[in-house]
Amino acid sequence: MLRPLTRRAGKLSLADPEKQRGNDFSMAQRWFIVGAILLAASFIQIPIVLDPDLGCLLTENEKILDGGKIGIDLFEVNSPLSIYMYMPAVKVARMTGIAPEIIVIMMVIIEIAGALFLIDRAAQAAKLGARERTISTWSLALLLAILPGTVFGQREHMATIALTPFVAITGLRWRGFEPGPVAILAGVGAGLAMSIKPFFALVAGLPLILGIVHQRSFRALFTSEGCTAAVIAIGYGVVLVAVFPDYLFTYAPMVADAYLPIRREFGGLVLVPIAVISVSIAFLRLLAPQELKMGSDAMPWLAASIGGAASFLLQGKGWPYMAFALCMFAIAAPLLHIRRPLRAPVMIGGLATIWIIGLYLSSPAPGFPPLKGRIQALVKHPRLLTLTDHVGLGHPLVRQIDGTWVGHSCAPQLLTAGAIVRQNSSQPTQPEQAKSDSVIQLERRHLLASLRNDRPDVILVDTYLLSSFQFDWLAWANRDPELQMELGHYREVEDVGRVRIFVDQSKLER
Prior knowledge:
Elements: E1 5-8, E2 11-14, H1 17-45, H2 52-65, H3 80-84, H4 87-96, H5 100-125, H6 130-145, H7 155-174, H8 182-196, H9 201-215, H10 224-243, H11 245-258, H12 266-269, H13 271-287, H14 299-315, H15 324-335, H16 344-361, H17 372-378, E3 383-387, H18 397-400, E4 404-405, H19 414-425, H20 430-454, E5 458-462, E6 464-465, E7 469-470, H21 473-478, H22 481-487, E8 490-496, E9 499-504, H23 505-508
Parallel strand pairs: 3-4, 3-5
Antiparallel strand pairs: 1-2, 5-9, 6-7, 8-9
Helix pairs in contact: 1-5, 1-6, 2-4, 4-5, 5-6, 5-7, 5-8, 6-15, 7-8, 7-9, 7-14, 8-10, 9-14, 11-19, 13-14, 13-15, 13-16, 14-15, 19-20, 20-22
């Protein structure tokens, strides 16, 4: 029987049909398992994906489709791309009638599949073996689809997915392989991730810097994917200047003054990166001792994890979802470089560690009492407003009660909270005091406009500042005579835990 000819090392040779069929089966099996993992993830996420941040961003996109403008009608502490990245889900939802959060799940699953495909194409271009490609694909599918838990679909999750092909290709170049033309697409993903949050430049940049040290040449900095990422990030900056000047020059400086300084103590923040990276290094020693050397294959992945740690610390909020890149790449570093069969204790310990990290990522934020049933009993489909610095009071509640959000921001007094903390924690200079006062006055004007123009049916008033200190937000609002007059139209009907519920008196009289 004639065998097809193949080229090996510049020479023609006879290919073994049985081996070719084995490779085809291996590839089919690889993607069948990936499909099963992604399908399982989508079903897991259906009841849990709608968290406060996602609920807020979906609602903001709906207001944009209804004519609202960022920096004028809508104010979001994150960059405009953080909002618009969910616009496709909202548009498809309006066209199909499917809930937008379900579309978000589908959108993220497609993104994961695309990232895995890019990584596999790069590995094929580098002529890696089928076994290594299969382990890589399955491992990353689990880490990107199952590990996130309640982080699934958030900005940090989607940005980390977009960064993963970039880190994988950096790892291939580290080993001396050429990833092929898909490297450009990996650069696009990294550029978009940095545009979502500039902090992600640390995740992409640290492996590149390590590559410069490893190769003793700046050529590692000027790869196709690195240049593409830079072009995308710079292009996004140009778009901000041209399309969103109100956000960039008016609101963003207020965010920098009042929101960014809100941070936890460094001593409490640093424990998480130390623990996660230490465990990653410990497993590298157990699974592949040679992977701790400077030239080892795991270094780019470990460097990306350290970049994620730096991002987590610089943001300073301590919220678990901000540690997703740190955790994902820290797990990937040893997992992708297993070089020998695992002993049972090591396997059990590794699975337990991943489970604990998953629990940490999905740990709930300081919450609010159940309010859905109570509000629905008072007013059907209400126009809702909150007095709080926490997004979780109004979102995703307003979507669950089929209400209408009438605030200018999902956390209407977030910047005010930052200004108050800053004023109370130090002796501000006169210019600093003026900046804080302008922030507070801006959010007072927004609140007054919402009360006068949008006439909420229900107002939820928080009694905590940054979920840490008791604070009377109603008294804060009533210090302004015009706000006091408008709030006089509302009557407190109930207090539930930390929340006071006010209803428009005209609704109660019907």
